[in-house]
Design a protein that fits this description.
CATH class of the domain at 5-19 and 104-280: Mainly Alpha
Radius of gyration: 18 Å
Oligomer: single chain
Number of strands: 0
Structural class: mainly alpha
Strand content: under 5%
Distance between the termini: 32 Å
CATH topology of the domain at 5-19 and 104-280: Hypothetical protein af1432
Mean pLDDT: 89
Helix content: 55-70%
Bound molecules: fe (ii) ion
CATH architecture of the domain at 5-19 and 104-280: Orthogonal Bundle
Low-confidence stretches: none
Order of helices and strands: HHHHHHHHHHHHHHHHH
Largest sheet: none
Amino acid sequence: MVLDKDALWYRIKKMNSLSTLPEIYDRVSDMINDPKTSAANLASVISRDETLVAKLLRIANSPFYKATPEKITSITFAVALLGFNATKNLVLSVSIFDLFHTFEESLKVTVRGFWKHSITCAVASKIIAQNARHKNPEEMFVSGLLHDIGKIVEIQYMPEDFKKIINIINTKEVSMKDAEEEVLKYSHTDVGKMLGVHWNLSPRIIDCVRLHHIPDKAIENLTEVSIVHTANVLSHSLELDYKVPVLNQKAWEILNLKIDSLEPILKQLKKESIEAIAVLFPKK
Ligand SMILES: [Fe+2]
Ligand SMILES: [Fe+2]
């Protein structure tokens, strides 16, 4: 069944599991918006979820995320050291995986591939942000993680259409976006944007999701979109994908990266993405 954009928007609003982000993220967001919230209050709310705490501390101390040279031993310390917004992005990065879990057996391998690519793109976005001296590498990490989120909605909620899309890509050798347009009349970037708006994510993250294939269309968040666009291309090249997207000239120029920096970035990405996948999406 093909849904037009309005019908899809209606359906996203109705989808129980997608109608809100993981509860803990909503709670953390609300607290951050309240000027009366202290670091201790925020830490005590997060601390109620032991599994989340264990994951957060592991990630906060991992080279692929590490924002500070100091070892973070408690959530209170993490909140104090990272600040409210970085903590919020960290909670979102850990809990997003809980939203998507019921898949057809035949699509399980595709789902694993999807998350591996998304995590690699998250790590690449963070590395590029650091190299480009961007002020918020943690937000770039979460933007990279979510850049293709529309695809997982298609896999989970429109499995038959998604199989048709894959079939078209393999037989006609067209891009994912063109195949999606043919079957659905919209693409994963449209679905992702709708979700981002619905979840009340920052306009920077939404632009990265919406424009990562056409970075030169970005007006307000050109640097951020260029980072995720470049990270997506590097992730595909690392995955030895036979359809590596073309790197947009304007995106490359805006980041002001030297061509010599590509090799060390790819080397770091290779190492850190393996570790990030093991922590965020371990093999069950
Ligand atoms: Fe994409
Ligand atoms: Fe991608």
